[in-house]
Structures are given as structure tokens and as C-alpha cells.
Hints:
Elements: E1 2-5, H1 11-23, E2 29-31, E3 45-51, H2 59-67, E4 76-83, H3 90-100, E5 104-112, H4 127-149, H5 160-174, E6 186-187, H6 197-201, E7 207-210, E8 213-216, H7 225-229, E9 235-236
Parallel strand pairs: 1-2, 1-3, 3-4, 4-5
Antiparallel strand pairs: 6-9, 7-8
Helix pairs in contact: 1-4
This protein binds flavin mononucleotide (FMN) and iron/sulfur cluster (2 copies).
Amino acid sequence: xxxxxxxxxxxxxxxxxxxxxxxxxxxxxxxxxxxxxxxxxxxxxxxxxxxxxxxxxxxxxxxxxxxxxxxxxxxxxxxxxxxxxxxxxxxxxxxxxxxxxxxxxxxxxxxxxxxxxxxxxxxxxxxxxxxxxxxxxxxxxxxxxxxxxxxxxxxxxxxxxxxxxxxxxxxxxxxxxxxxxxxxxxxxxxxxxxxxxxxxxxxxxxxxxxxxxxxxxxxxxxxxxxxxxxxxxxxxxxxxxxxxxxxxxxxx
Length: 252
Ligand SMILES: Cc1cc2nc3c(=O)[nH]c(=O)nc-3n(C[C@H](O)[C@H](O)[C@H](O)COP(=O)(O)O)c2cc1C
Ligand code: SF4
Ligand code: SF4
């Protein structure tokens, strides 16, 4: 089984790697921004993993599915989404799109992980609380891997009821936030030291350094990587200031 993932702050990458380790799987595992990403199509079984955004798929992942529509026919796809609290049908959104292109959805899991929206105070938890969340998620993955080895694939987020929960719980109110790439990255040029960490890590190449300062374009997939790893807390997106930077390495 090969795997492709989007992971802004490392949660989704961590979960994919843990599941594959537990399964003893030695397939190719690549971030979606990798130049070699198309090599994942060499397998008939593929994991697609991403963070839930407003109970929807990040736009870069949707683009990837649509841009490779001829690759999905008869592929067996297992979906993983990670979330801060509630995904509804976070896996189901990708499942419906992939089925349109002929994919067979073998199952899906939705895993609670630390929230990556680091410029919103209401969502923040302590490092200790986030460590406990990660431990719980890792234990859940062990159970899921055991089930999968026995041929039972979980179906989280794929039911009609999940579809209703995702739609009425979030997409109906926030749909406009995930219908395209975001133009809303804000960079405080007074704080920016031009180190380039943000641009080097951005999966959509949305940030460049011009005259010693970072400048954002309009193709942000809202992954929160630049915001979480900027050493000067100079970048924001949904909120007005960085409250506490996220990043899986703090919790593992
Ligand atoms: C723009 C945005 C929207 C989000 N929306 C949701 C959401 O609807 N429900 C939820 O539980 N978590 C939500 N989250 C939290 C992330 O899904 C969660 O932290 C995820 O594990 C991040 O994974 P990553 O580190 O692999 O990027 C959102 C995060 C971002 C950045
Ligand atoms: S990571 Fe922060 S400080 Fe470094 S270039 Fe980007 S915005 Fe500026
Ligand atoms: S600009 Fe920042 S938040 Fe947006 S896609 Fe790039 S790294 Fe992610």
C-alpha cells in the first residue's frame, strides 16, 4: 500500500506513519507536494490523508484528486483525516469525489489530534493536554491496525449520517472558506527577518522573499505550516495574532 498526505503541522504525517508501521507496510509514503508524488499510483491500494478543514478537504488535496482523475479507476483507497475536534464526514468528502472517478473506497478513519489553528485562542490546549491527545490517537491506531490486519476496515466518516453531520455541523456555514485557495495570509513585515523558513516549507510555494521580507501570494491551502514554524510569529491567517505555535514534535 502506498500513501500520500498533506500535513501542515505534522499530525497527519504522524498518523499515517504510525498506521503503516503497525501494519508492517513498506510502501512509498510521500507528502502531496513531493515532485515524485505520482509514484504512489504504482500501487493498487493507496492511503490518502489530510487534515479536516471546516469538515471539508483542503483545497490542495481536492486539486490533487481532480488533476489526477484518470488514475483512480479501480484503485482501492483508504482515507485518513485528522481533526482538532469534529470532522463530520471529513473522509466522506474525498470518498465521494474519488468514487466519481471510479475509485473503490476500502475504509476511512478520523483521528483527533492537537488543533493546528495556532492564531485562535479559543482552540488552544496546553502542551500536556495535547500530549495526552496524541497518546490516545496512537492507541486508537494500534486497535485500527489490528482490525485491518484481520480484514476489517473501519468506515469512519463515510456513512449517510456523517454526511449530514458534516454538512449541517460545519459546511453549510463555512463552505466559502474551502471552495478555493485562500488569499488571506498576513505577514507582519516589521516582525519578519527574511529567514525564508515560511517559503521553503510551503506546500503551494505561496511565499517568496522580496527585498529581505516574506511576501505571500494568493494560493494558500491553509495548512498552518508557515504560521507554526515562523521564528518571529510574524504570520497569521484566521486570527489576528499567534497564540501558541503547533507542531507534532512538541507532543511526541
Ligand atoms: C483552516 C483549518 C480548518 C480546520 N477545521 C477543522 C474542523 O473543521 N474540525 C476539526 O476538528 N479540526 C479542524 N482543524 C484542525 C486540524 O484539522 C487538525 O489540527 C489537524 O490534525 C492538523 O493536521 P496537520 O498537522 O497534519 O496539518 C482545522 C485546521 C485548519 C488549519
Ligand atoms: S518565517 Fe517568519 S521571519 Fe522568516 S521569512 Fe517567513 S515571515 Fe519572515
Ligand atoms: S502560505 Fe502557509 S498556511 Fe498557506 S499553504 Fe503555505 S505554508 Fe500553508
